[in-house]
Amino acid sequence: MILRGIAASDGIGLGRAVCVREENLDYSDVAYSGKESEKARLQAAIEEFEQRTSAMAEHIRQQVGDKESEILTGQIAMLADPFMRSQMQDAIDGGACAEAAVDNVCTMYADMFAAVEDEMMRQRATDVKDIRSRLLGILLGAASVDLSNLPAGTVLVTRELTPSMTVGLQKENVAAIITASGGKTSHSAILARALQVPAVLSVTKVLEVVRDGDGLIVDGGEGIAILNPDERTRSEYLTRQKDYQARIASLEVYRSPSHRGCRRQAISALCQHRLRR
Amino acid sequence: MVSAKVKVINPQGMHMRPAQVFVAEMAKYNSDVTIVFGGKTVNAKSIMHLMAACIKQGSELEIRCEGEQEAEALKAAVALVEAGLGDL
Fold first, then answer.
1. Chain B residue numbers touching A82 (CB-CB < 8 A)
2. CA atoms within 13 A on the CB side of A39
3. B49 is catalytic
4. What strand order describes the sheet that includes A224-227?
5. Where are the alpha helices (DSSP H) in chain B?
6. How far is CA A118 from the centre of its chain?
7. What pLDDT shows up at residue A64?
8. Hey, which residues does A178 pair with through a beta bridge?
9. Which of A159, A163, A171 has the alpha carbon at shortest distance from A187?
10. What is the dihedral sign for C-alpha A239, A243, A248, A249?
């Protein structure tokens, strides 16, 4: 089966699916324990969030890069918004438990950002949803997703690639990434490219059709994935993968200091690489 | 209440990083800070509202401060925007 999506990160990956499904953040069983108690729970969860997020940001800064790390430091800044915090407190005063306060206020802000014209600002909706999920996870005591022990040749299949997922990720073991949502400028795309892992995004039904262990081929440059490919397709793509890696390796030489003077050569090689696709 | 008009000069406008710089500075002052832009009035101490206003390069802003430290707040706000919000 051929799955089509948005080409987000070049390269070809072959492997077996590891599906990361969303944790259950249902809080309907949580009973309101009173204003002071709920506010204390919220405060504790916010502090936990800040601590965990700073640690992740630092980890990502070292393993991936400064720009990617700013995604998380930005989230800390957003959660520190005094107006948003007072809205959460007001919700608690109105009888909402900490989970409901977080859910309602974050959803309101996510909707606010989703409605703006500016595409970059619309991305903030994803950040707010990420804040919401992680805060709810902390309040509900849900186990966080641990991707530090993926087998070699993993094709990661998930709704979106969040910054927290990249912490501890051994990118040598990740052959490719497929997500159900996200565009070319989404965090999923930015992170996949920074990790230099082939990725196809917005394959909306991917978590419905793919099971753990399914064989997958991902062509990040074309924006397609092939589910349970036959042997012939596999060997064809293995060849394409080798060709791609050889082309990339041949461009690497232009990064070396001895070639600093050869800008024109490098640009021409890059154009040829692009034309070949 | 004091106010002043400024123009946003940094290329990406009031996106995440400059917005962080702005609200961090404004948080130091005992004063309400609002920005009037494109017919909208935005609470400029709230990073969420500041970003959602989608203030771009070239935007003309009116910064209004009201409170005990309104003069200092306004001075700092204007200086920050004129210097490019740390983004130049």
1. 27, 45-46
2. 13
3. no
4. A2-4, A224-227, A215-219, A12-20, A154-158, A174-179, A199-201, A6-9
5. 16-26, 47-52, 70-82
6. 21
7. 83
8. A157, A200
9. A163
10. positive
Q: What's the whole-number mean pLDDT along residues A153-182?
A: 90
Per-residue pLDDT of chain B (88 residues; tens, 9 = 90+): 999 999 999 998 999 999 999 999 999 999 999 999 989 999 999 999 999 999 999 999 999 999 999 999 999 999 999 999 988 7
- C-alpha to C-alpha distance for A91 and A41, rounded to whole angstroms: 14
- What pTM does this model have? 0.79
A176 token code pair: 């490719």
- Give the gap in angstroms from C-alpha B13 to the nearest C-alpha of chain A: 11
d(CA A25, CA A23): 6
> How distant is the alpha carbon of residue A199 from its chain centre?
11
Tell me how far apart the alpha carbons of residues A76 and B76 are, in angstroms, rounded to a whole number: 23
Euclidean distance between CA atoms A223 and A1, whole angstroms: 14
Complete edge-to-edge strand list for the sheet that includes strand B2-7: B2-7, B60-66, B32-37, B40-43
**CB proximity B15 to A under 8 Å:** yes
> Cα(B82)–Cα(A207) distance, rounded to whole angstroms?
49
DSSP H or E stretch at residue A200: strand A199-201
Phi first, then psi: what are they for A31, rounded to 5°?
-95, 140
Phi first, then psi, for residue B27 (nearest 5°) are -60, -20
Q: Which ipTM was obtained for this model?
A: 0.93
